[in-house]
Design a protein that fits this description.
The chain is mainly α and 73 residues long. It has two helices and no strands. Helix 1 runs antiparallel to helix 2. The radius of gyration is 17 Å and the shape is elongated.
């Protein structure tokens, strides 16, 4: 069982990296909306989209590295 958890740990870390980037984008967008006094919520929308996009890029890069290292071993 511990071997399975150790094998899954890098993939879980990559997933949390994606979630963190998306949440970070939403929080940053919320801060921009609050700073600008905007009631429409465009900062949250744009921040969430940017954070999700950056999270996807980070997840794909990490996944490719993990798959590459798995193929070498």
């Amino acid at each position: 069982m511990a071997r399975v958890f150790r094998a899954a740990a890098p993939w879980l870390a990559a997933t949390w990296q994606f979630v963190g980037a998306a949440l970070g984008g939403v929080v940053a967008g919320w801060g921009v909306d609050r700073w600008a006094g905007s009631k429409a919520g465009y900062g949250v929308l744009v921040g969430g989209l940017l954070g999700s996009g950056l999270g996807c890029v980070a997840f794909i890069r990490t996944a490719l590295k993990l798959l590459e290292s798995k193929g070498k071993s």
